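Section: protein folds

Sequence with per-residue tokens
===
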Amino acid sequence: MNWNDLRVFLALARSGSVRSAAIRLSVSHSTVVRRVDTLEKNLGVRLFERMLQGYILTPVGEAMLPQAEQVENKIHGLELSILGQDAKLSGTIRVTVADALIQFLIASDLQRFKLAYPDIDVVIKASYDVVDLAKREADVAIRFMANPPEHLVGHRLPNLNISYYASHEYLKQHDLTADPPTANWIGMNEIATFPTTQWLKESPYPYIPVRWSLPILLQQTAAQVGLGMVMLPCYRGDQDPALQRIPPGQVIEGKPGLILTLDDLRTTERVRVFVTFMAKAIRQYADLLEGRLPK
């Protein structure tokens, strides 16, 4: 039995939705369907009923679920031991990361790390700025940037790609080709990563005006309630059931992801374990981060 098939079985059993399982595993919808079909064929049983409201476990699937979870726990334990888990690992790691990345993507991964290493305290500094690790403002930085300082080392992560979104109702109410425009963009409080002049110029409708300027996390809420159209990272917009990509649904390539630390800290065991753990976790979201899972 293939572990990847079991992972798909568990994700689908827990969510009941092919789309949600695909997002969680960072694979395509077709991959989820194919692996479930393959697993059922290999076992010679039907594990799910395909219903209008989603995938529902059959009695055989219900019986298989706790056994699959036991396999999952054993494999996670093996992964942790390979990473070099040491029960004596302890101390504090200060991590700087964008708050949106935690809220919409990696909160559960931080929880998993804490469960695996309960004596390591992770202190989060939510920031979009480039924190100077050389000044010991943080031990680890998770950033999306093209040219990191040369004195930092770390792991390459997927790109943070972006697209353009609006609520379903907003797109029904506004002709985006109207002259003069009736629609508007929701701008953001300026940050260096995505200056307004850049993303507006690259958008499919650069002539539509910007009417709002909001903090990054509030932009998405504003779009949900119909205040306008918005530029968002794909990992946020594509997971939001209230939003859809604005036609033609283009993806703009963003900055590469990096998890960085100082060269003299990378051999510190708790830092090494954290960096390795989180790099692996974030890479699993590559399709979501890079916009390959549109609704």
About this structure: The mean pLDDT is 87. Residues 162-245 form a domain with the D-Maltodextrin-Binding Protein; domain 2 fold (CATH 3.40.190.10).
